[in-house]
Write a structure and sequence with these properties.
With 420 residues, the protein is an alpha/beta fold. It has 25 helices and 7 strands.
Length: 420
């Protein structure tokens, strides 16, 4: 794999219309600093390659009077050119063209309309940046992270109460009393739940003094959701700094959970209790990374802020693995349902999900709305653009998101006061 030692990405852009060129440039501005050379045909491309070797070639299928396949064939005459990553943009899926492009091991195919998230991930995989200090690289890389995650049962065990709640949910004979009895066994969690229930978010005039009363007033599902959130916040703590604030992170997680639940009721695509868990856990991989790779991961967050890039793309650049995948591995170890695991894994890149579960799309849009309306902060300085696949799957349009947000009746100011 090519490792870029420069901060600036050197790109050779080939073929396509002026609109295609402008779209590529616009997307690259949000991914990484770059220089670009443009060629209209294969002859231009070969002349540029003889002068200098770019980090990446981005090509339309049609390159002048030739095709990208012929470009790849021409590049085979020079050993050093064979290692240059090439991304070819196709107007639509084509088995024939895809098979023709399998002449280079570093080729990737990108379908139009161009998607910033997908292109960002491809570039991160093909041309990663390594900017951590040597000592940090030794402990913060894909191999070391995956080795540590094999011990995930000890690193991030599912809180006992959350596991009990899941068992109660699976039991058709369970009742609100069963839930209350389990919660009351943990005095710390009980106190936190009552603090949340009596917060300004709910606005009750009389104080709710016990879990049984909370269930009567708020309902079984709401108290169950609060209990899960309280357990996670209590069980997985970490130190704040200027780039990653613990309180703001949990506000973001809980805000995304409530938004996902509200969206699920609006779209009628996902069970509300599942939607809440997806929102609550979508960024949990960051908690694991900050707890067990604190120094190095804080450098990753700092780098994302300095470059104003998405945290998941920088994480992939630096270590070859990012927080969404880490979070999905944790969720998998907890034996959460496959659609929830997939939603956590692909909440930044829903188009890459191997399943068509609506949970993925719900998590993606809920996370974007939480960022747009500044509910907490997740450490990610660059907000995703809504993926067209998610908007289509949920039967909503990007230009309707603001009206949909208003219809969800979520008050950001009250949301910020749920926890603190």
């Amino acid at each position: 794999m090519t490792v870029s030692v420069k901060g600036r990405l050197e790109v050779l852009l080939l073929g396509g219309t002026q609109l295609f060129s402008n779209q590529i440039r616009s997307i690259l501005q949000h991914i990484r600093e770059f220089n670009v050379e443009i060629g209209d045909n294969i002859q231009d491309a070969l002349q540029i390659l003889m002068r200098s070797k770019p980090d990446l070639i981005l090509s339309d299928w049609q390159v002048g009077s030739h095709t990208a396949r012929e470009l790849l064939q021409a590049m085979q005459v020079n050993e050093s050119w064979k290692s240059i990553p090439v991304i070819v943009c196709l107007d639509e899926p084509s088995t024939e063209k895809s098979e023709q492009l399998e002449t280079m091991s570093t080729v990737r195919i990108l379908f139009k309309p161009l998607n910033q998230n997908v292109l960002s991930r491809m570039i991160a995989e093909l041309v990663p940046i390594r900017k951590l200090g040597e000592a940090d690289k030794q402990v913060y890389n894909e191999g070391s992270i995956r080795r540590k995650l094999r011990m995930i049962g000890r690193l991030a065990p599912l809180p006992t109460l959350v596991r009990k709640i899941m068992e109660i949910l699976k039991d058709p004979n369970s009742s609100a009393r069963d839930l209350a009895e389990e919660i009351k066994k943990d005095q710390v969690i009980t106190a936190r739940i009552l603090k949340i229930v009596n917060s300004a978010y709910y606005g009750f005039h009389r104080e709710i003094g016990n879990v049984d009363h909370a269930i009567v007033v708020l309902g079984f599902d709401e108290v169950m959701n609060i209990a899960q959130a309280a357990c996670l916040m209590n069980g997985f703590s970490f130190e704040s700094d200027e780039y990653f604030n613990r309180e703001k992170f949990w506000i973001h997680a809980l805000g995304t959970a409530y938004i996902a639940r509200a969206l699920s009721r609006y779209t009628r695509k996902v069970e509300s209790k599942d939607a809440f868990v997806v929102g609550l856990l979508h960024d949990f991989g960051k908690v694991v990374l900050i707890q067990h790779f604190s120094k190095a991961y804080k450098e990753v967050i700092k780098l994302a802020v300095e470059q104003n890039r998405s945290l998941h793309s920088v994480g992939l650049d630096v270590a070859g693995i990012e927080h969404a995948e880490v979070g999905s591995l944790v969720a998998e170890s907890w034996q959460l349902p496959v659609p929830l695991v997939s939603a956590i894994r692909y909440h930044h890149l829903p188009s890459l999900a191997r399943t068509n579960g609506d949970e993925v799309h719900l998590a993606h849009i809920a996370n974007i709305l939480c960022h747009r309306y500044n509910i907490g902060a997740s450490g990610n300085p660059a907000v995703d653009d809504p993926d067209p696949a998610s908007l289509e799957a949920l039967n909503i349009a990007d230009n309707r998101l603001e009206k949909i947000w208003e219809s969800l009746d979520i008050d950001p100011d009250r949301m910020r006061r749920i926890l603190w």
